[in-house]
Amino acid sequence: MVHRNTNAVRDAALRGAGFRVTPQRQAIIRVLETSDRPLSVEEIISRMKGYRSGVPTVYRNLQQFAEHGWVETLVGPDQIMRFVWCSTSKHHHHVQCEQCGRAVEVEGCALKRALEAMEAKSGFRITRHQLQLFGLCPECKGE
Amino acid sequence: MVHRNTNAVRDAALRGAGFRVTPQRQAIIRVLETSDRPLSVEEIISRMKGYRSGVPTVYRNLQQFAEHGWVETLVGPDQIMRFVWCSTSKHHHHVQCEQCGRAVEVEGCALKRALEAMEAKSGFRITRHQLQLFGLCPECKGE
DNA sequence: TTTGTTGCAAAGGGTTTGCAGGAGA
DNA sequence: TCTCCTGCAAACCCTTTGCAACAAA
Fold first, then answer.
1. Which of A88, B23, B36, B71 has a CA-to-CA distance to A45 between 20 and 30 Å?
2. Does B93 touch chain A (CB under 8 A)?
3. Its pTM surpasses 0.70
4. Does A129 contact B125 at a Cβ distance shorter than 8 Å?
């Protein structure tokens, strides 16, 4: 019973963080966890099966989840907020396919050397960075 | 007459790109060129000396300038568009000081090796990336 | 004179707030 | 029961659009 177990873990995490377990929160997390790409609030709501929650509720919860490091908020040139579930709380980046929209996490961060070079060039001490990667996923790039 | 010269160069660039030379455009460029950080539209207008143009005009021009690669549009978590003048049209990144807000360009891109590592990890072919750097500038980091 | 530009006002649309009713614990 | 949450509607506010007047060329 993998499902049962997953749900139990998620509910425990909610409670452990001081949240009440509501069907809305469960639905938001379920949608985000099973999505292969960043989702807007509208997209999150439309993907809720059997349950439809209000827009403000989703925003409020997403904001709280972000404070706990559970979701990452991305906002691109279209000015729309999109959210991704972070399976790892370690520093990581997301690569998104420009053709099919699928996104995956790249664990770890290979930027160490590059950042050092940029620190030397700029004279700044770089403390934080945000990298967004775009390209072609394995399926889309193969012919 | 450095000023005269700079202005002449800028006006020629405008004309060369098919733009008419208007005081609004001149003012926008002047503000952006002399700014040491990304500016919102509101900030751009408030910094215009002796001339005040309408909000839509600034947005429209900024959009056109961006299409010519003259300005870069950044939008952070606060959802507000900010614009920086790009002195070079080559690929580059910006580092912004988290304390004083000053931002500088880092010419070139030291990410080649890091991107290759991430391509290998993800299986994606990475075609485009956007990197935002934050840290402490030379003045702010000293002590 | 021709045609690109500007400015005003209004529309647009994603996000946030206020508040009363509802439901976890 | 006691709070926390949710949902609705309205408020917000940055950005865009429409259109008539204006000005560069």
1. A88
2. yes
3. yes
4. no
